[in-house]
Amino acid sequence: MRVVIGLCLLAPFVAMIWVGSYAKTDPTFIGIPFFYWYQMAWVIVSTALTMIAYKLWQRDQRARREGGSR
Q1: What mean pLDDT do residues 29-54 have?
Q2: What's the pTM?
Q3: What is the pLDDT of residue 68?
Q4: Where are the transmembrane segments (predicted)?
Q5: Which of 2, 17, 32, 49 would be a feasible disulfide site paired with 8, CB 3.0-4.6 Å?
């Protein structure tokens, strides 16, 4: 579970740090160069992945508490 949480939090970092993969203008999206809309898309994706990681963390902590109290 914690590996999945780590991957959810690491994916946006890796996607943004690897600038060479998105430092281009094509394809454009509604007139916006790829460089800009790719980064804006990652804002939304990062939010979703962080939310998923948080929910998974809560579930993991709850399971550990219930398992430890027996």
Answers
A1: 96
A2: 0.82
A3: 67
A4: 39-57
A5: 49
